[in-house]
């Protein structure tokens, strides 16, 4: 699914960036330019970011 239609950024693109170490909306903006046009994607991107970071944190807690 597209998160940012203006810049053709999908949820898969964002998830891949988070797996590579991006942890903030600012990081995603620098990498994908999300939020630079109409801004409608920011809320969805933030929700996706938080969800993915929680998943990463949960797997790290389970491993330790």
Which characteristics define this entry?
Arc Repressor Mutant, subunit A, 2 iron, 2 sulfur cluster binding, 64 residues, electron transport, transport, mainly alpha, metal-binding
Structure in words:
- It is a single chain.
- By secondary structure, the protein is mostly helical.
- 19% of the residues are buried.
- Helix content is 61%, strand content 8%.
- It is built from 3 helices and 2 strands; from the N terminus they run ββααα.
- It has one domain: Orthogonal Bundle (Arc Repressor Mutant, subunit A).
- It has a two-stranded antiparallel sheet.
- It has helices at 11-19, 25-32, 42-63; strands spanning 2-4, 9-10.
- α1 (11-19) crosses α3.
- Belongs to the Bfd family.
Bulk shape = elongated
User: What structural class do you assign from the helix and strand content?
Assistant: mainly alpha
Order of helices and strands: EEHHH
Q: Strands of the largest sheet, in order across it?
A: 1-2
**Can you tell me the CATH superfamily?**
BFD-like [2Fe-2S]-binding domain
What is the β-strand count? 2
Radius of gyration, taken over Cα atoms and rounded to an integer in Å:
12 Å
Question: Span from first to last CA?
Answer: 33 Å
**Beta strand %:** 5-15%
- What's the CATH architecture? Orthogonal Bundle
Average pLDDT for all residues: 94
The CATH topology name reads Arc Repressor Mutant, subunit A
| Total of helices | 3
Keywords: 2Fe-2S, Electron transport, Iron, Iron-sulfur, Metal-binding, Transport
Domain BFD-like [2Fe-2S]-binding: 2-50
Organism: Marinomonas hwangdonensis
Protein name: Bacterioferritin-associated ferredoxin
């Amino acid at each position: 699914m597209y998160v940012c239609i203006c810049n053709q950024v999908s949820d898969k693109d964002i998830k891949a960036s988070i797996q590579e170490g991006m942890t903030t909306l600012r990081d995603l903006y620098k990498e994908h330019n999300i939020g630079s046009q109409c801004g409608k994607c920011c809320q969805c991107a933030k929700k996706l970011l938080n969800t993915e970071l929680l998943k990463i944190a949960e797997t790290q807690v389970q491993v330790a």
